[in-house]
Amino acid sequence: MSLEAWREAGLVVSHEATPEEIADLFAVAETDLRDAAISELSPERKLGCAYGAILSAGRAALHAAAYRVPKSNPGHHHYVIQSLRYTVGLAPSIVLLIFYSLRTEAASCWALARVARRPGIRIVLFL
Length: 127
What we know:
This protein is mainly α. The chain is 67% helix and 3% strand. It has one domain (3-125). It has helices spanning 3-8, 19-36, 43-64, 76-82, 84-87, 92-107, 109-116, 122-125, and strands spanning 13-14, 67-68. Strands 1-2 form a two-stranded antiparallel ribbon. Helix 2 (19-36) packs antiparallel against helix 3 (43-64). The model is unreliable at 110-127 (pLDDT under 50).
C-alpha cells in the first residue's frame, strides 16, 4: 500500500502545507520530547509526551508529503503512526513497536509504566 492508495481509500486527504505549518508541528514534537525527558515526571506522563511527539512529527512528515489524516477519521492516530513507514522509511517493526506500545498506554497506563522502565522502550520515548 502507499499514501496515494490511502488517499484513494479516503484514509488521508491531499494537503498543501506551508513550511511554517510543518515547522510548527516539529516545534511541538521537540517540546514534547524535551518534556518527556523531565526526570520529575511520572513514566506515564513521559510516555504521554512521547506519544504527542510521535504524532506531531508524524503529522509534519505527512504534511511534507502533501497529505494529512482527517481528524474526523476515527483512527487518525493509528494512520499518522502507520504513515511513518511511507514518509520517513521507518521499518515496519519499529512502527509496530510504537503503535502497540502506545496503544497499550490507553488500555493500561500502569502496565506501560512498568514497561517504560525497561531499556528497550527508549526507542519509543526518544525516537
